[in-house]
Amino acid sequence: PSKRIYRSIIADYELNTAIAELIDNVLDCRKRTKMRGQGKVSLHFDLEDQSIEITDNAGGVAKADLEKLISPGASLDSGEGGTIGIFGVGSKRAVVALARDIKISTRHDKDPKTFRLEYDDSWLSSEDWELPYYEVDSLPESTTKITLSRLRFRLEEGDVANLAKHLGRVYSRFIKRGELKILLS
């Protein structure tokens, strides 16, 4: 498909929706891989640099599945049910809706290597789907870190405060049961 699909599907995403989409993926991944313990998502907002960093402990993405991080409709979900996301476009459009520069670093389970994909608006404008990945400094086991810079909107303190309230409401059940911890800084 044309990469225009990215542009056409981001219009209805804003900060709260996009971040919730990424947290939904954390919950889905932990459920799919039957991970035990508390899921953790750390969100760091740099208002000066206008960037966002999202780190989770949901299991990471295996080297063989890295392509699924950018391919519309591709998903790690087996379709067996019980997950929140089902269409394979949520996290892809969420990161593109938020930022012009995207870096996704991931270390799958106990794999000793961490890999990174990087893309930006120039890659999105081309028709070439090839996106190389490369090895980077190691993240902790089962970790993914998404770094979003050159945001598509101006991020203010009030936006972060509103997001915190939104996430508290949306994920209260998971938080109360000790299944999920969301940290904002």
How would you briefly describe this protein structure?
The chain is an alpha+beta fold. It is built from 6 helices and 7 strands, in the order H-H-E-E-H-E-E-H-E-E-H-H-E. The chain starts with a helix and ends with a strand.
Report on this model:
By secondary structure, the chain is α+β, with helices and mostly antiparallel strands. The chain contains six helices and seven strands; from the N terminus they run ααββαββαββααβ. The chain has helices at residues 4-8, 15-32, 90-98, 121-125, 157-170, 172-176; strands at residues 39-46, 51-56, 99-107, 114-120, 133-136, 143-151, 180-184. The chain has a seven-stranded mixed sheet. A hairpin with a 4-residue loop joins β1 and β2 (51-56). α2 crosses α5 (157-170). The chain is globular and about 45 Å long.
| Weakly predicted, low-confidence segments | 82-89
Strand percentage: 25-35%
- Classify the secondary structure makeup into a structural class: alpha+beta
Order of helices and strands: HHEEHEEHEEHHE
Total number of β-strand segments? 7
How many alpha or pi helices?
6
Mean pLDDT: 87
The major pleated sheet works out as: 7 strands, mixed
How many angstroms separate the termini?
38 Å
Determine the fraction of residues in helical runs and give it as a percent range.
Answer: 25-40%
Label the overall shape: globular
Rg on CA atoms, Å: 16 Å
Q: State the strand order across the main sheet.
A: 5-4-3-6-2-1-7
Write the layout of secondary structure elements.
Blueprint (H helix, E strand, L loop, with lengths): L3 H5 L6 H18 L6 E8 L4 E6 L33 H9 E9 L6 E7 H5 L7 E4 L6 E9 L5 H14 L1 H5 L3 E5 L1
Parallel strand pairs: 1-7
Antiparallel strand pairs: 1-2, 2-6, 3-4, 3-6, 4-5
Helix pairs in contact: 2-3, 2-5
